[in-house]
Design goal:
Order of helices and strands: HEHEHEHEHEHEHEHEHEHEHHHEEEE
Number of helices: 13
Radius of gyration: 23 Å
Distance between the termini: 80 Å
Helix content: 40-55%
Strand content: 15-25%
Largest sheet: 7 strands, mixed
Strand order of the largest sheet: 7-6-8-9-10-13-14
């Protein structure tokens, strides 16, 4: 009897010292602190929600999916530091991120050298795909499309004749500005003024005063919400009578808190009113869990994590196979079917996704009446 008890004790001791089955780690890189932390909130929530759902169905090949939240502050230097650490971690076989184009462009060569594939749910700068060397993918449209789309919308749907452009000196904003201006010329839309600002700018009145003299129909802000909100406030304080519109960088709750932003038009890659059944299930689950509706950063991240998980399920812990499987999502028939629609990539890792226009009405984002096809 004593011998049996001893055997049982030894067996239990040995079992308690065995390592638990290793999980699967997917880093999700975004600004979780700093001036754009509000963007990162949607990224974080959606990534954790998707992982929770995957784990409830048995994980990835029986292993638990663990989301590693990596903060890059939306700054190129910090993005490089994060990318270097992830590239040197052999347990990382794919990265979801980064969010800001400048951060992605800083991280891109590091991942490429390490042969580590990444998928960004939000970086739209046109140069990313061709610079990725086959290792960078994205499930969002690029700024050449978004900027041209906005120029078309301004000219065709809004019938504006004269606009001014107030852009930030970063990769995202300048890429949008360039695409917008080029398409505006083709559409007969006059860009009568262009001014720039930096991320540290808080007083925009000198440039806005110049714009006021020009009497434009509308002011295009291809930047991020924190500065965009200040620009709108200061423009109205100067007495400017102008329509405000921008790109997906203005799609943030900060704008909803600003009463002066009523009527603001922005592009978005995800519109709840245009979403399918699966998307509506996602919206309901997200809203129930976090007490608010998901923004487009959340929707795209949810799908990006899903793509990463599906890829790992097929390729295992092999970076080269991960890249090959991602590249194989290369047609509508082979697309990943997610809440943002079908995602498939061209030879540069870029994808073709539609854009929608929404507007702030009574303090809420709603679908604009006019949508381009």
């Amino acid at each position: 009897m004593r011998l049996l008890i001893l055997v049982v004790l030894v067996f239990n001791l040995l079992c308690s010292e065995l390592p638990a089955q290793e999980g699967v780690k997917i880093p999700v890189v975004s600004p979780y602190t700093g001036s754009l932390a509000s963007f990162g909130e949607g990224v974080k929530n959606a990534a954790l929600l998707k992982a929770e759902e995957i784990n409830a169905k048995g994980g990835i090949n029986g292993k638990k999916l663990n989301i590693s939240l990596e903060d890059d502050l939306c700054e190129p230097k910090e993005a490089s530091n994060v990318a270097t650490r992830l590239a040197n971690d052999k347990g990382v076989v794919i990265v979801v991120g980064h969010l800001c184009s400048s951060a992605t462009l800083a991280a891109l060569p590091i991942y490429r050298k390490a042969e580590l594939a990444a998928i960004t749910p939000a970086s739209t700068n046109p140069t990313i795909g061709k610079s990725g060397g086959g290792y960078y993918f994205r499930n969002v449209y690029q700024d050449e499309f978004q900027g041209a789309f906005l120029a078309r919308y301004a000219a065709e749907a809004m019938k504006w004749k004269k606009v001014v452009v107030f852009y930030e000196t970063n990769d995202y904003s300048t890429g949008l500005k360039t695409a917008f201006v080029e398409e505006a010329k083709k559409r007969g839309l006059k860009v009568i003024g262009q001014e720039a600002y930096t991320s540290a700018t808080t007083d925009f009145t000198p440039q806005l005063a110049k714009f006021k003299i020009m009497k434009p129909d509308a002011l295009f802000i291809p930047g991020y919400a924190p500065q965009g909100s200040l620009i709108i406030n200061q423009a109205l304080k100067l007495g400017m009578k102008v329509h405000f519109f921008g790109a997906d960088g203005l799609d943030d709750a900060i704008m909803l808190e600003n009463k002066n932003a009523e009527g603001l038009l922005v592009t978005t890659p995800f519109l709840a009113e245009a979403a399918g059944t699966e998307a509506k299930d996602f919206i309901n689950a997200y809203t129930k869990k976090f007490g608010k509706q998901p923004n487009w950063f959340a929707a795209n991240t949810y799908d990006a994590v899903g793509i990463a998980a599906e890829t790992i399920a097929q390729a295992g812990n092999n970076r080269q196979k991960i890249k090959q499987i991602l590249a194989a999502f290369n047609s509508p028939q082979k697309a990943y079917k997610g809440v943002t629609g079908n995602t498939y990539f061209d030879k540069y890792g870029d994808c073709l996704k539609p854009a929608f226009i929404k507007v702030i009405k009574d303090g809420q984002w709603v679908s604009a009446k006019e949508q381009l096809k």
